[in-house]
Amino acid sequence: MTNSYSLAVLPGDGIGPEVVACALEVLDAAEARYGFATRRETLAAGANHYLATGELFDAVEAPLRAHDAILFGSMGDPRVTPGILERGFILEMRQRFQQAANVRPVRLYPGVPTPISGLTPERCELVIVRENTEGAYVGRGSTVHAGTAHAVAMQESLNTRAGIERVVDFSFRLALGRRRKLTLVHKTNILVAAGQLWQQVVAEVSASYPEVEVDYVHVDAMCFHLPLTPERFDVVVTDNLFGDIITDLGAVIQGGLGVATSANLNLDGTAPSMFEAIHGSAPDIAGTGTANPAGAILSLALLLGHLGEGEAARAVEAATVEVLGGLPALAGPDMGATTAELGSRIATIVREGRADAALVPDSLLGVLAGLAPSRLAN
């Protein structure tokens, strides 16, 4: 019996539709090669839809819930006031669907240039797990005397034991399937209340995982250690704001935002998980064919791993790595091929079964499946 999955597609804004089209072409190739099927529903969301209708996440929540997983492009447009789409759609989805763990691999692939002198792929292979629904991103805050010389702004950071515990436990399970080391990143010497709660939960949960070594690094020190000694880290767990910052630093180390990817995981199977490249909508290059689709295609690989299609997921990752390693540049007109051409190259390698698994021998995908139960609708 052929495995069949229900997939929601949100192309979004800017370069989102272009890179998602590449990911779907690769998905077609993977289905043909590995014998599974997807039923896809493309939903309108993002700046154009908001400007035309005023609709945000509420308009698509019900249809999204009906699917096993979500493939997301990008969202953002200078015509929309900053914060409207980010808070009204992206953060709203993460919170309502309880996508508690944002998982971002930081991996330097063979042949991909990095700005860090002397860094090799063997030294850079870690995963950052960011708490995804709490912290400073809950939206709690206020401003008084706005627009005057006496303006005062207050922004709260919310940390709950339940929210921390679920993402910490997930991180320990992830580490157990990898190199068995977990590092908590926080700022416990200044953010004492939140930091102590995070440290307490890590210490208590670690008792259930005696095989996993536990480490701690201040977030400012992390910004020093991550580019210089990334081999120190295996699985890093941190709060929402710190995670947002250090994962972008990680993306630079691994070659840029265009090759970085993420999974937003619902950890109990009550709602679909969402998979996205971490680059923005880049409206300045939309329609030029100069966007690198690798991040979106690697997001597809994570999605397939989450659904349990591990062989297809590894093939998609390996094919993407092979194409990336042969590019003269990772973005822009000097890539040597258009966005669509790169997508087609990767799809061809997958379809013909030529992906070299040796390029990703210790893939994250091998331990991702089963850690967060997929919400299969079939």
From TrEMBL:
EC code: 1.1.1.85
Cofactor(s) this protein requires: Mn(2+); Mg(2+)
Principal EC category: oxidoreductase
Pfam family, one: Iso_dh
Sorted UniProt keywords: Manganese, Metal-binding, NAD, Oxidoreductase
Classification via InterPro entries: ICDH/IPMDH, IsoCit/isopropylmalate_DH_CS, IsoPropMal-DH-like_dom
A molecular function GO annotation: 3-isopropylmalate dehydrogenase activity
Domain Isopropylmalate dehydrogenase-like: 6-346
Domain of life: Bacteria
PANTHER family reported for this sequence: D-MALATE DEHYDROGENASE [DECARBOXYLATING] (PTHR43275:SF1)
Listed NCBIfam families: PRK03437.1
Protein name stated in the entry: 3-isopropylmalate dehydrogenase
Organism, scientific name: Leucobacter allii
